[in-house]
Amino acid sequence: PQARAGIISTVEVLKVMEAFVNEPNYTVWSDLSCNLGILSTLLSHTDFYEEIQVFVKDVFSPIGERLGWDPKPGEGHLDALLRGLVLGKLGKAGHKATLEEARRRFKDHVEGKHVLSADLRSPVYVTILKHGDSTTLDTMLKLHKQADMQEEKNRIERVLGAISQPELIQKVLTFALSEEVRPQDTVSVIGGVAGGSKQGRKAAWKFVRDNWEELYNRYQGGFLISRLIKV
User: Fold this and answer.
1) Does residue 122 belong to any structural domain of this protein?
2) pLDDT in tens, 187-216
3) Chain centroid to CA 231: how far?
4) What residue numbers bound the domain in which 31 lies?
5) How far is CA 92 from CA 55, 103, 132, 162, in A?
């Protein structure tokens, strides 16, 4: 927060973050991840965006290598949460080994060879979408349609905004208002687009303005309209 307010140098904050590479605590990594996400958002409007992605890979890869992809004997719930957090962060940043493994596991998941565990689905989905194409998005939308449980539908809805290409971002936004998505979940899809990239933020803002009447009529007087404005 102090860096965002201009009180201390962002460089100093990043140096402090580097000191946590051997930290095993989930809460600490969650906080680091959140703050790096905010910095990435701010830097996406500058020439330093790619450099912050390199920084993310450098900071998160040691803990990622220690955790691996599969649970170890005696692991607790927080270890599973930490694994998902770290792999998702590395995957979005384009860490080569993480991206390759995510694609391999996603392929096995789609083909029914080896179903992904619940705690690995979001990081894998985010990774393959961030670096995916129209085929990737179509596969995710198919998984959404086939999902029996609302929990899985919501999981997919939250990550669709990770897709990068402008025309696919528009497809996700159109999907958000379709009958495939429950009205109370539309905001999650739009919010995911807004948080996915600089292009996504611009597209989501335009989409909300263009469809304001329909969105307002849906949510007037409710907390979802304020949440939509916030995202």
Assistant:
1) no
2) 999 999 999 999 999 999 999 999 999 999
3) 14
4) 1-93
5) 13, 12, 11, 8
